[in-house]
Specification:
The complex is a heterodimer. Chain A has two helices and eight strands, in the order H-H-E-E-E-E-E-E-E-E. Chain A is mainly β. Chain B is α/β, with parallel strands linked by helices. Chain B contains 14 helices and ten strands. Classes of the chains: A mainly beta, B alpha/beta.
Chain lengths: ~130, ~375
């Protein structure tokens, strides 16, 4: 991703900023111009809570450039409590404890050591929600 | 053109090889347009403008050229453009070539290049690859439908068994269940025997309007194969935005369109060249095209209903798994193999009484799906 693209998407990566459709009231992430649910104009902005659950996961051993230092890592499809699904890495987790349906919450982490132009990229990952007292 | 690691040949050489063979076989002496299906020439070879690059190398001048790109379905998308060109009467003779050169760079670069078929800002930016996306689908599928670890083995075993007879296949060796079960994991639960290989390849066809075949081609194949239906449909680019990540809605829609256009039903089809880039895709494709109920596609592999004598033979020449998956070329390999089957030229892999074949090419994690039905 270019520096311009990283700058444009910063609110999405740092705070899961999406939208609530004014027509059908469904949550949308990331923001779109057209609501994917009812095809009306989307908006206004709405920040997701960051809470969700694991819909699916995979531990990846073959990884692309920019992610070699983190190999292997666990990717997940996380179903946010507002409804949208996001693709993100799981963090602060051991292999044994990952399971479908596990409650997770968003945290900000380093996504890549450096991008094509040397920048460090931060964004959302998800970690297990610990019960009080854990 | 055999699929493989062609370090001694460039993209223009392998494309020319396929196009020259197609022209020779058709006996065509006129070319009005060349449509090239390709995904990664810009990312991996720093070469765009592929339509004209290849036309130039083939010695074509003053013809229409364009590169058609729709990720891994680029080959079938190019065929569809060629089909529209001749069916509309805009061109008399169109050549379509699918070509991909994936081994000119490092594995990491190729992996990153393939990931550009996903949403760059919201999928690839987080480190997911195509294997990863398919693994996310497969993990959830196994969870929802209670599929055992060896539930998908039959797809891989069938592909390798069939590919052994295909002179153009990359891996011409049957595999055993043990080989499958002991294969190294690349993204859990996907192992290397669930996954198609990175490779180079090119395949081509000559298209002429059916009623004018005799005017333009003088090949020694009087039974030119006819495109009975051509259809394409899209879905969301990102897997995470699908209404149901375990259902290939675009495969359902494009195959339904193709059934209506051709007037054939799934039961009429002699064999099905589906997009087995990963074994999970075989299961989902069979479900979306009407051969299995949702969550039951994998049963067809377990029961070997997909073998050459089965209810619906698939990957009859090795599929993406054994023949190989040179991404933008794959859709055209499927078409060439479908033609070979329909002409009765598939050798030891021949499906008995093959009269109607279906080929389905998938771009991304199910985002663009192109279906063709061909008849002899």
């Amino acid at each position: 991703m270019s520096i311009a693209s990283l700058w444009r998407t910063r609110q999405q990566r740092y705070s899961l900023e999406g939208e609530i459709c004014p027509e059908c009231r469904q949550a949308i992430f990331p923001p779109r111009d057209v609501c994917p649910h009812c095809s009306e104009a989307a908006g206004p902005l709405h920040t997701m809570s960051g809470r969700g659950e694991v819909y699916s996961y995979t531990k990846m051993f073959n990884v692309p450039n920019g992610f070699l230092a983190q190999r292997p890592y666990t990717m997940a499809l996380v179903k946010l409590e507002e409804g949208p699904m996001v693709t993100a890495q799981l963090t602060d987790i051991s292999d044994e404890e990952v399971e479908i349906g596990m409650p997770v919450e968003m945290v900000t982490r380093k996504l890549r050591e450096e991008g094509d132009s040397g920048e460090i990229v931060y964004g959302y990952k998800f970690r297990p929600v610990f019960a009080a007292g854990d | 053109m055999p699929v493989g690691e062609h370090w001694d040949l460039s993209v223009r050489h392998i494309a020319y090889h396929a196009i020259a063979a197609a022209l020779e076989e058709a006996g065509a002496d006129q070319v009005d347009a060349l449509f090239v299906g390709n995904m990664l020439s810009g990312a991996l070879l720093s070469q765009e403008h592929l339509g004209t690059l290849i036309a130039d190398f083939c010695g074509f001048r003053n013809v229409e050229t364009a590169k058609i790109e729709s990720a891994c379905s680029s080959g079938a998308s190019a065929l569809r453009v060629g089909h529209m060109a001749v069916a509309s009467g805009m061109h008399d003779v169109a050549v379509v070539c699918g070509v991909e050169k994936m081994t000119d760079t490092t594995g990491e670069n190729t992996t990153a290049g393939l990931a550009t078929a996903a949403d760059a800002e919201y999928e690839s930016a987080h480190g997911v690859t195509f294997v990863g996306l398919n693994a996310l689908i497969m993990q959830r599928y196994m969870y929802e439908f209670d599929v055992p670890l060896d539930g998908f083995a039959g797809f891989s075993i069938n592909a390798h068994r069939n590919g052994a007879h295909n002179a153009n296949a990359m891996f011409r060796k049957p595999i055993s269940l043990d080989t499958y079960l002991n294969a190294p994991l690349i993204a859990t639960p996907i192992n290397i025997m669930d996954s198609s290989p990175v490779c180079d390849g090119a395949a081509a066809a000559v298209l002429v309007a059916s009623e004018r075949v005799g005017d333009y081609v003088t090949g020694h194949h009087p039974g030119a194969v006819q495109i009975l239906a051509s259809a394409s449909a899209n879905d969301t680019i990102a897997l995470h935005d699908r209404r149901d990540p375990l259902f290939l809605e675009a495969a359902y829609v494009s195959s339904q369109k193709a059934y209506v256009e051709s007037g054939v039903t799934p039961a009429d089809i002699s064999f099905f060249e589906l997009h087995d880039a990963f074994t999970i895709m075989s299961a989902l494709s069979l479900e979306a095209t009407g051969y299995a109920r949702r969550g039951e596609g994998w049963h067809l592999a377990a029961d070997d209903a997909i073998g050459p004598n089965g209810r619906i033979p698939i990957s009859t020449m090795g599929g993406l798994k054994s023949r190989g998956h040179p991404v933008g070329a794959t859709g055209m390999y499927q078409i060439v193999e479908t033609v070979q089957q329909l002409r009765g030229e598939a050798g030891e892999g021949q499906i008995a009484n093959a009269s109607i074949g279906m080929a389905q090419n998938i771009g991304g994690s199910g985002a663009t799906i192109v279906t063709h039905i061909l008849g002899s």
